[in-house]
TrEMBL record:
<dbReference type="GO" id="GO:0031966">
    <property type="term" value="C:mitochondrial membrane"/>
</dbReference>
<dbReference type="InterPro" id="IPR023395">
    <property type="entry name" value="MCP_dom_sf"/>
</dbReference>
<keyword id="KW-0677">Repeat</keyword>
<keyword id="KW-0999">Mitochondrion inner membrane</keyword>
<keyword id="KW-1133">Transmembrane helix</keyword>
<dbReference type="InterPro" id="IPR050567">
    <property type="entry name" value="Mitochondrial_Carrier"/>
</dbReference>
<keyword id="KW-0812">Transmembrane</keyword>
<feature type="repeat" description="Solcar">
    <location>
        <begin position="42"/>
        <end position="130"/>
    </location>
</feature>
<comment type="similarity">
    <text>Belongs to the mitochondrial carrier (TC 2.A.29) family.</text>
</comment>
<dbReference type="GO" id="GO:1990575">
    <property type="term" value="P:mitochondrial L-ornithine transmembrane transport"/>
</dbReference>
<protein>
    <recommendedName>
        <fullName>Mitochondrial carrier protein</fullName>
    </recommendedName>
</protein>
<dbReference type="GO" id="GO:0000064">
    <property type="term" value="F:L-ornithine transmembrane transporter activity"/>
</dbReference>
<dbReference type="Pfam" id="PF00153">
    <property type="entry name" value="Mito_carr"/>
</dbReference>
<keyword id="KW-0813">Transport</keyword>
<dbReference type="InterPro" id="IPR018108">
    <property type="entry name" value="MCP_transmembrane"/>
</dbReference>
<keyword id="KW-0496">Mitochondrion</keyword>
<keyword id="KW-0472">Membrane</keyword>
Length: 132
C-alpha cells in the first residue's frame, strides 16, 4: 500500500526545514558580523527573535506544499478518492480555488510559528552555549 501524500511531505519537509535553518543561521551570523562579536555573544532576546522570524520564513515558503499534503492525506480511498496524484491535487486546487486555495489557514499558522520557533531556537542555542 502506498502512503498518500508521502512525496509532497518529503518535499515540504526538506524545503521547509532548509528554509528554517538557513534563515536562522543567516540572521545570527549577520548580527554577529554587523556587531563585531562572536556568534555565542548574540543576546538571548535576539536569538529568540531570529528563531521566531525563521519560523515565519519556514511557513511562508512551504505552506502551499503543506496544503497539498493535508488534502492528499485526508483524501478518501477507492471510489471516494478525489486526487490521483500530487500533480492532480495541485491542478484541482488551482482550478477550483485559485491562488487563495494554497493559502487557506496561513494566519493561525503564522501566529503559532513565531513563539514556537522562538522558543525552540532559544532553548537549543542556550543548551549549545552551556555545553561548549
Amino acid at each position: 500500500m502506498r502512503y498518500r501524500g508521502e512525496a509532497v511531505t518529503v518535499i515540504r519537509e526538506a524545503q521547509a526545514y532548509g528554509m528554517w535553518f538557513m534563515a536562522f543561521e543567516w540572521m545570527m551570523n549577520a548580527d554577529a558580523a554587523r556587531n563585531g562579536i562572536a556568534r555565542s555573544e548574540v543576546p538571548a532576546y535576539k536569538v529568540a527573535l531570529y528563531g521566531g522570524l525563521a519560523g515565519e520564513a519556514l511557513w511562508l515558503g512551504s505552506y502551499p506544499l503543506d496544503v497539498i499534503k493535508s488534502k492528499m492525506q485526508t483524501d478518501g480511498f477507492g471510489e471516494n478518492m478525489r486526487y490521483k496524484s500530487m500533480r492532480d491535487c495541485f491542478a484541482q486546487t488551482w482550478r477550483v480555488e485559485g491562488m487563495r486555495g494554497f493559502w487557506k489557514g496561513i494566519g493561525p499558522t503564522l501566529l503559532r510559528a513565531m513563539p514556537v520557533s522562538a522558543g525552540t531556537f532559544a532553548v537549543v542555542e542556550a543548551t549549545m552555549r552551556a555545553i561548549s
